[in-house]
Design a protein that fits this description.
Length: about 425
Amino acid sequence: MSTTDKVEKPMTAQGRPRGSYRAPVPVTSSPRLISQSATGRLNRTRLLQILYDVGPLSRAELARLAEVTKTTIGSIVQPMLDEGILVEGVPQPSSGQGGKPARPIWFSPSGRPIVAVHVGPGTVRAALVSPTGIVLTHSDGAFSSTNASHEQIVDRVADCIERVLPGSDGPHALGIGVAVSGMVDTDHGRIIEVNLAPRLSGLELGPLLSQRLSLPVHLDLHPRVQALGDRWFGSGRRVSTFASVYCGEAIGAGFVIDGAVHRGASGAGGEVGHTIVDLAGAICRCGRRGCWETIATHRWLRSQAAALGLPGAGQLTAASLSRLAEQDRPDAVELLDKYARNLAVGLVNIQQTLAPGFFILHGDIVQGGEPFRLLIEKHFRQGIAPRPGSEPQLRFASPDDDITLLGAAGLVLSQSLDLLT
């Protein structure tokens, strides 16, 4: 059973997915054509995105927005209607010109649900998600990130999943999407390395879960799954290009470019926390020197707070530091500003390299509130070079959202559609 496929991307004029890896080839080689199955999967993904962006639409409205014929829309929609992912609504009154009443198409609330999982350093969270993006139930677990065996970790993850799976009288789950807080090989469903949880490194989580639970498993990097959640269900809806950045105990990013989640070969990329910001900086957990994470994560923040003698330094977060700063403690005010500046350094590098123009920030930093966001934005604007167009925007995500889990559900939904051919 397949574990992972690639997130669908719009095609370039040369006939390959935008942002995909392409090895150097001789100039005499013939251009590749797009397979029929890949084209069908891409079209289904684009149609689903239109529905998530706009809402229930008739075939005629979908055809107009997608700039194709109604016949083409019908060929894309029908398999998903047969599968129960989509349903036709109540016929709408016909226009004054007559004709067959339109029936809006939308996601079936009783369609096959999706299992979404987020595996972090020592933690597991699973959820059952409806095709409409509603989290139906949660399950949480924990494991030792330093002592647990691979078998014990798989047992704990599978246990969380089994607690949210529908009963025998419910619809069979469509698949399992897993977001991992670490470097992953998406081609093989394997966790390569998690600096904050060494016991996860090398774990072939995708194949093992698929074998145990008899469901397809799709595994990807947490910030990239988070970006997919933003694109389909969050602040990134109707936004063609943006960066979804996680900042807390670690730093990572997912990028949506021209409407598609970008992924390097075998799931590479997104490890922005390990971009170098200071060649003479501190040693990072990854073993390299001067990574962005060495100046803008909990580890750095708490060491700085301890040196200043701030109360609760060992457990300090953006929220607690912001509260201390609100009490007009000069040391806390100074540290909060320095934290904002250090976060902005990495965001500026992203903007200068990819120019997403819109950043959705997740993680512990959003608990710092609007004053903290404004501090980050101030340093960010001071750091970026002049550019054409509108000013880049920084937005905090909702502190209590389930975007990563929703993104994991979207991962399954978008990658499982080739099963409907």
